[in-house]
Amino acid sequence: MGEDGESTKINHSFLRDYVTEADVISTVEFNQTGDLLATGDKGGRVVIFQRETQVSYGSGLLTKGEIEELGESGEYNVYSTFQSHEPDFDYLKSLEIEEKINKIRWLPQQNAAHFLLSTNDKTIKLWKVSERDKRPEGYNLKDEEGRVKDFSTVTSLQVPVLKPTDLMVEVRPRRVFSNGHTYHVNSISVNSDGETYLSADDLRINMWHLGITDRSFNIVDIKPANMEDLTEVITAAEFHPKHCHLFVYSSSKGTLRLCDMRASALCDKHSKIFEEPEDPGNRSFFSEIISSVSDVKFSHSGRYLLTRDYLTVKVWDLHMEKGPIETYQVHEYLRSKLCSLYENDCIFDKFECVWNSTDSVIMTGAYNSFFRMFDRETGRGVTLEAWRESSKPRAVLRTRRVYTGGRRRRGDVGVDSLDFTKKILHMAWHPDENIIAIAATNNLYIFQDRVNPETQ
Amino acid sequence: MSQPQTETMDVSTEAKRIMVHALGKMYTLRTQRGGLRLHRSLLITLVMKSARDIYHSCRIASEQLQEQANFTGVTTESCQTGTDPAGVPRNVDSTPAVKTEVTDNCPKTDVQSDPLYHNSGAYSEDKENQSYTSPDRQSRKRHGKAAVEPDFLPCKKAKMEAVDVRRNGALRATCCGVKDSLTHIPISRGIVSF
Questions:
Q1: pLDDT reading at B127 higher than 60
Q2: Closest to B43 (Cβ–Cβ): which among A182, A252, A343?
Q3: How far apart (Å, rounded) are the C-alpha atoms in residues A287 and A84?
Q4: Which of A232, A288, A345 sits opposite B47 (nearest CB)?
Q5: A139 Cβ under 8 Å from any chain B Cβ
Q6: Are the C-beta atoms of A253 and A288 separated by less than 8 Å?
Q7: What is the distance in angstroms between the Cα of A98 and the nearest Cα belonging to chain B?
Q8: What residue in B sits closest to A88 (Cα-Cα)?
Q9: What global pTM score does this model have?
Q10: Which residues contact A197 (CB under 8 A, 6 or more apart)?
Q11: Which of A135, A381, B103, B112 could be joined to A374 by an S-S link, Cβ 3.0–4.6 Å?
């Protein structure tokens, strides 16, 4: 792009922005086995990647066991692409409904087909992803193209046979859960019972049955009688990974509420509330904005919660409500820049956070294409970069550093040189292995740990 | 004497800048695709409110500093119980301790004590726009943010309501916390109609 002449530069950048806005990835999710990876984008499309289980090596193919032994992890290739949501219009309120996919969640696999839920601001859809690699041939009344044969030419009967064909992946919508939300849906979460799921918007959380689309239960409603009394909104919600009666939701005030559906039908009253008292020394104009929780995730064990607010990630123990057990600074150097981050709207960015499979490492995104991993045992954090220019395929990622004082090393990036348009908001960690998927604007990066492919 | 004043001015300028940006963002939100984002509107509103509280308390603090500079011989006691230029008696609840706290700590102001201030401060500021401020739950009218910032936007409030509010405000021992002040944050009409 740097070669363009001055006169064409403007046009090109306009086109580039226009074209790629729809390609910006808005959600990333592995399925329960990690063989499939789904991404959703702002244009309402879903792209599913599948991990290769056959790797050619030398003169033959390796089995999955051999692949793992050699440390050759299969790569992810595009498996299927489909348009999940289209732009919509609410005629009653004269509001456009964006087609951007806010979240994708896979259902546990029960048969040969895969099912996933995808949602935009208003509507949740259940999709069935199935493979077809055989087709019947030899119909009596139809020819190969499907045209009806002239019956006078049919002199004998044949039994149609299934012949192998090229693999075809079919994706069909099986359920559409609409009209459940007045406000914008920010989360969906599949219950461990395998039958229900929740969807949360700014003020309400609904519970749906996967088979029933015309009805849902409202389980949380924090809408005040007078909207002028509004002080907080729901920012994320998730079911407990093991207990089907428990779920958690986070708020814009930085609190987490654990609710037990056995207690009552409407879970406005929380069973537990997790909040950390504010540090008065850190108070500023923007304290409320930066304390808003942008993501909450249960650990795989179900014992801990991971939350992300603007400057930190915190680990909470479900047994301790008075504060997090661990706090990690993601980019504390931004604390003095909050005013300019507010002016350019970056302070409203919602970062996600993820656990690794053994709950020993946590990861979250930052700016300048950086993302951070924290080892919970040592408490140490590392900064990595998801940027094509600085890493070739199969090259080892080197750690990066933001220069905040002290001795400056080569490769350190100054705080003022950070590119705030390159933000890592969405990411996913493979459920069993050390494979991570990072969404950087319209690019998807998949990194694998070759040294320790299996998490210990 | 001038240093606290400059500090106050800096914070006040920053607060004003933040408010201007907040207003711009609120307007942009309304035209954005996908409808009004409630979460973002709320956060912007909270920032606007913090900035507004601090802006007012800084203005009062700087006015006080000026008063103290003018009336050097007078004790602080009489300064506090005296009426402000607009003729509205200062709120009885404004204790000396609270006042000095704000004067000294303007940059890191305690938001809890501010509403006490900005109530009386707002009265003294601008007679026309006094319809805003007090946590007047009886009034169902939405008090526009415009009322708070007369120098940016035109005020649309009628004077009649201002008189009623002032009376109510004076009668009540205002002890509104951060939460109460939020009753006056006008979230978009569209949301209220849901």
A1: no
A2: A252
A3: 37
A4: A288
A5: no
A6: yes
A7: 5
A8: B34
A9: 0.76
A10: A105, A117, A188, A189, A190, A191, A207, A208, A210, A239
A11: A381
A67 pLDDT exceeds 90?
no
Strand A312-317 versus strand A326-329 pairing type:
antiparallel
**Residue B162 · residue B127 · CB < 8 Å:** yes
Q: What is the pLDDT of residues A320-344, one digit of tens each?
A: 999 999 999 999 999 999 999 999 9
B20 touches chain A (CB under 8 A): no
Cα B97 to its chain centre, rounded Å, is 20
pLDDT tens-digit series, residues A276-311: 998 888 888 899 999 999 999 999 999 999 999 999
Question: CA A365, CA A423: separation in Å to the nearest integer?
Answer: 7
How much is the CA Rg of chain A, to the nearest whole Å?
25
How far does B75 lie from chain A, in Å, by closest CA?
32
User: Quick one: which of A376, A378, A354 has its CA closest to A364?
Assistant: A354
Q: A388 phi and psi, to 5 degrees?
A: -55, -40
Residue A147, CA distances (Å) to A142, A151, A152 in order = 5, 12, 15
| Alpha carbons A439 and B6: distance in angstroms, whole number | 46
Mean of pLDDT values over A443-453: 84
* Structure confidence at residue A43 as a pLDDT band (50, 70, 90): very high
Q: What is the mean pLDDT of residues A99-127?
A: 97
Collapsing DSSP to helix, strand or coil, A80 comes out as: strand
Question: In this structure, are residues A369 and A420 in contact, taking their beta carbons and an 8 Å threshold?
Answer: no
Q: What CA–CA distance (Å, rounded) separates A220 from B17? A: 37
Please name the residue ranges forming H helices in A41-142: 64-70
Q: What residues have CB less than 8 Å from A82, skipping those under 6 apart?
A: A45, A46, A127, A171
Position A122: which residue type? K
B88 touches chain A (CB under 8 A): no
**Which DSSP letter does residue A203 get?**
S
Burial class of residue B40 in the structure, from the number of CB atoms within 10 Å of its CB (0-12 exposed, 13-18 middle, 19+ buried): buried
- A342/B42 CB distance under 8 A: no
Residues of A in contact with B184 (CB under 8 A): 228
Look-up: residue for tokens 């193209």? A145
ipTM (interface pTM): 0.85
Inform me whether the C-beta atom of residue B86 falls under 8 Å from chain A C-beta atoms: no
Q: Which is higher by pLDDT, A399 or B87?
A: A399
d(CA A60, CA A37): 27
Inform me whether the C-beta atom of residue B40 falls under 8 Å from chain A C-beta atoms. yes
Q: Which residues pair with A375 in a beta bridge?
A: A361
End-to-end CA distance of chain A: 44
Task: Please list every residue in chain B whose beta carbon sits closer than 8 Å to the beta carbon of residue A96.
Answer: 33-35
**Residue-level length of chain B:** 194
Vertex B147, ends B144 and B149: CA angle to 5°?
120
Query: DSSP assignment of A237-297, as one string?
Result: EEE-SS-TTEEEEEETTS-EEEEETTT-SSTTS-SEEE-----GGG--TTHHHHHS--EEE
- Residue B47 token pair: 């920032």
Among residues A229, A133, A117, the alpha carbon closest in space to that of A175 is found at: A117
Q: How far apart are CA A268 and CA A218, in angstroms?
A: 10
Type of residue found at A3 = E
Q: How far is A216 from chain B (nearest CA, A)?
A: 19
